[in-house]
């Protein structure tokens, strides 16, 4: 009986690890976002930069939206620094919003701050 219990626990652990990895991969790709282009402008409320990607929370007409910007290397490559993403600045985001109804989440392809474009994904149209 203990051997059977161990086998069940091992199978459960393997299945849980597989599902967690699948969910993480699905989120960090583009599958969770719509195909249509989306643009939004708001005021930066908070910033968290780092891996796997940065997140900028913006206020848009009293609603909070979370914007996924690039990984640290991608932000650095285009000159998008923490200073550029400081609280209180206006930002326009071009990208793709979440396909989940009501979720205020956007994957940024390009952002505009002070009239300057920062194209995070130059190979994609935005």
Task: Walk me through what this model shows.
The protein is of the alpha+beta class. The chain has two domains: 31 residues; 82 residues, Nucleic acid-binding proteins (OB fold (Dihydrolipoamide Acetyltransferase, E2P), Beta Barrel). 27% of the residues lie in helices and 35% in strands. The protein contains two helices and six strands. A five-stranded mixed beta barrel has the order 1-2-3-5-4. The longest helix has 27 residues. It is globular, with a radius of gyration of 19 Å.
| CATH class term of the largest domain | Mainly Beta
Q: What Rg, in angstroms, do the CA atoms define?
A: 19 Å
Shape: globular
What's the structural domain tally? 2
Distance between the termini: 59 Å
Mean pLDDT: 83
Assign the structural class, choosing from mainly alpha, mainly beta, alpha/beta, alpha+beta, or little secondary structure.
alpha+beta
**Main β-sheet description:** 5 strands, mixed, barrel
- Which H/E pattern describes the elements? HEEEHEEE
CATH topology of the largest domain: OB fold (Dihydrolipoamide Acetyltransferase, E2P)
CATH superfamily of the largest domain: Nucleic acid-binding proteins
Signal peptide: 1-26
Organism: Marinobacter pelagius
Pfam family, one: DUF6152
Protein name: DNA-binding protein
